[in-house]
């Protein structure tokens, strides 16, 4: 179902009236994690002011250490929903556990993010496949393109064709940066699937200063959008502080991208 052979034209995913895919570029901005009400209210205002039309933020965080901040959970969903609603921004947030799916639907999460660590959590994929919610499927950190396509197929097979691929860098030998952004995967995915492909430059570089260059590369290579971390005060972020843009940097990025493509 996800294959280009099956559907020749580019699919456009409708997110509360906002098109993802097709001839426009969407930039999804927001913090790594939902922290506090004030942080989310400020973040939503800055995301909106920068010109982004969708907001990200994790309430359930897949942390490497069980002793690290694990996210605000359901309370975080509520904080996110209220902050984003005040700015009219649809919300993108990660679902890690199939047992939280009903809660996500109750809070009207607009886009369900499946993180790199869950790309092949087939039971989770099957369950989101039974909903009609748009799903961002991040690439597993060592997943091949065909494994990634098949993971998407699990969602599509259940009837949900609202799938967005997200390249976020892969594991490599290099230690200078967090993950190696696989720019090659962008044209490959665009050839193999009719579904939109976005790029997360934040988790690829792992440093804020790398984000503009990786973003430009992604858009120039044909990506349909970006998923970018921005924090009102990056140095105070509870998670992924090094890679968060500040509000001005997000604004500048949006201006730069408009020079490359039509950014809505
Ligand atoms: C995230 O987007 O916050 C995240 C945890 O990303 P990934 O699953 O790509 O590591
Ligand atoms: Mn993060």
List the SSEs and their pairings.
Elements (H helix, E strand, L loop, with lengths): L12 E3 L2 E3 L5 E5 L6 H14 L3 E3 L17 H14 L3 E4 L6 H6 L4 E4 L7 H8 L5 E4 L6 H13 L5 E5 L17 H8 L4 E3 L1 H5 L5 H10 L4 E5 L17 H12 L6
Parallel strand pairs: 3-4, 3-10, 4-5, 5-6, 6-7, 7-8, 8-9, 9-10
Antiparallel strand pairs: 1-2
Bound molecules: phosphoenolpyruvate (PEP) and manganese (II) ion.
Protein name: 3-deoxy-7-phosphoheptulonate synthase
Keywords: Transferase
Organism: Sulfuriferula plumbiphila
Biggest sheet strand order reads 3-4-5-6-7-8-9-10
Number of strands: 10
CATH C-level label: Alpha Beta
The main β sheet shows up as: 8 strands, parallel, barrel
CATH topology: TIM Barrel
**What share of the residues lie within helices?**
25-40%
Straight-line distance between termini = 28 Å
The fraction of residues in strands falls at: 5-15%
In CATH, what is the homologous superfamily? Aldolase class I
- Low-confidence segments: none
**Unique bound compounds:** phosphoenolpyruvate, manganese (II) ion
Domain DAHP synthetase I/KDSA: 18-257
Protein name: 3-deoxy-7-phosphoheptulonate synthase
GO molecular function: aldehyde-lyase activity; transferase activity
Keywords: Transferase
Short description:
It contains 9 helices and 10 strands. By secondary structure, the chain is of the alpha/beta class. The chain starts with 12 loop residues before the first strand and ends in a 6-residue tail after the last helix.
Structure characterization notes:
- One of its GO terms (molecular function) is transferase activity.
- One of its GO terms (biological process) is aromatic amino acid family biosynthetic process.
- Keywords: Transferase.
- The protein has an eight-stranded parallel beta barrel with strand order 3-4-5-6-7-8-9-10, surrounded by five helices.
- The mean pLDDT is 98.
- With 264 residues, the chain is an alpha/beta fold.
- Strand 3, helix 1 and strand 4 form a beta-alpha-beta unit.
- It is globular and about 45 Å long.
- Helix content is 34%, strand content 15%.
- The chain has one domain: Aldolase class I (TIM Barrel), CATH 3.20.20.70.
- The site of phosphoenolpyruvate has 9 residues, from loops.
């Amino acid at each position: 179902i996800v294959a280009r052979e099956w559907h020749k034209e580019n699919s456009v995913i409708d997110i509360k009236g906002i098109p993802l895919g097709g001839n426009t570029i969407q930039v999804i901005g927001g913090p790594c994690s939902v922290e506090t009400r004030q942080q989310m209210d400020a973040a939503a205002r800055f995301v909106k002011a920068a010109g982004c039309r969708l907001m990200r933020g994790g309430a359930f965080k897949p942390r490497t250490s069980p002793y690290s901040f694990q996210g605000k959970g359901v309370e975080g969903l509520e904080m996110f929903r209220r902050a984003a609603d005040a700015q009219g921004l649809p919300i993108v947030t990660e679902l890690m556990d199939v047992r939280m799916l009903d809660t996500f639907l109750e809070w009207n999460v607009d886009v369900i993010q499946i993180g790199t660590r869950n790309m092949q959590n087939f039971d989770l994929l099957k369950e989101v496949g039974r909903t009609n919610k748009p799903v961002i499927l991040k690439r597993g950190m060592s997943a091949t393109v065909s494994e990634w396509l098949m993971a998407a197929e699990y969602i599509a097979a259940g009837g949900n064709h609202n799938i967005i691929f997200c390249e976020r860098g892969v594991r490599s030998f290099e230690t200078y940066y967090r993950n190696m952004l696989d720019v090659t995967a962008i044209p490959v995915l665009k050839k193999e699937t009719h579904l939109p492909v976005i790029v997360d430059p934040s988790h690829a570089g792992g440093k804020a200063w790398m984000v503009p260059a990786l973003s430009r590369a992604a858009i120039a290579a044909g990506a349909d959008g970006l998923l970018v971390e921005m924090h009102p005060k990056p140095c105070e972020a509870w998670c992924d502080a090094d890679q968060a843009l500040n509000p001005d940097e997000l604004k500048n990025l949006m201006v730069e991208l408009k020079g490359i493509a039509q950014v809505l």
